[in-house]
Amino acid sequence: MPVNTCVPGPELIGHIAELARLEWKPGVTGAAVRRFGWVPDGSRTSSHHTGTGHYVYPEWFGGDSGDAADTECLIPFCYYYEPDDFDVELQADGLTGNVDWLAEYYDEEPSWVFHREADRSFFDGQWRTAVDAFGERLGEPETVVSHDLGGHAWHYAAWRCGGNAVVVGQTVDNGSYSTFEQALIWVGPHPADEPMPTAEQFSLRLEC
Description:
Layout: E1 3-5, H1 10-20, H2 28-36, E2 39-40, E3 48-49, E4 55-56, E5 73-80, H3 85-92, H4 98-104, E6 113-115, H5 120-138, E7 143-148, E8 153-161, E9 164-172, E10 181-189, H6 199-205
Antiparallel strand pairs: 1-5, 1-6, 2-3, 3-4, 5-10, 7-8, 8-9, 9-10
């Protein structure tokens, strides 16, 4: 049950915290990513590479969007896959499968580490490590909730930052056609007088 992971460190967390404290008017987030030194990138349908091994989604974030302000920024930091019997057969026959596909995710980035024998508890532990790291910068999260999927759950922690929010959570990875699960950071506008989403709403908001 492999995991590929690159938990965010202080540099990226600092940039996310700064993004969360900005008023997201047109051009503001683009100016911020240039100030951070994030490099434009289109190789993974991402918008930028952060310089910390992470890629930024959606592909138009922080660009020249004219009169339109950005509405969200998503940065994955961990992927998980549960092999099935077909994967076992492929491995026995010396053929490549989804486990090998996951091993190649970000294989050009030395900060990403592939754990072939990890399990779901390790995936959850990477989420918790990221939550604790953000907590050191942002304080205790306003909400921590879990979405029960039957047999396992996805977890979410969220901080309110003025008119924005930061969320660290787990969801499906659409980039792998829902083959893998992922843990990621979401930051974007969230009205100060609006309740935090439910666990199920978080899972939909974080999909990318």
